[in-house]
Amino acid sequence: MPDEIFLVIDLLLSDVQEDGSKLWLDLIDKVLSKQSSYKELTGNACTLEIKYDVTKIVNEYAKEDQKAYCLIETAELKKILLMWDDAVRNKYVE
What we know:
Layout: H1 7-16, H2 22-32, E1 38-42, E2 46-51, E3 54-59, E4 69-73, H3 74-93
Antiparallel strand pairs: 1-2, 2-3, 3-4
């Protein structure tokens, strides 16, 4: 994962995990389809602030010496979540 979007790893491992990203994807799709201009969702460790162009991922437990958020293109985050779901599904197919 590129350094600029380092919190995607925290999002996947602590919030999405192996349960799938349906809840997250549903909100992203509402914003990308312009049904909504903004959505926010807080998980175990991260909060997503979803806007059409960019999503802010905030680590709710960042230490003082750590950067507490990163920005990622919303469409790119959607692609990553879909790839994560595929990887989890494929893990159990073998």
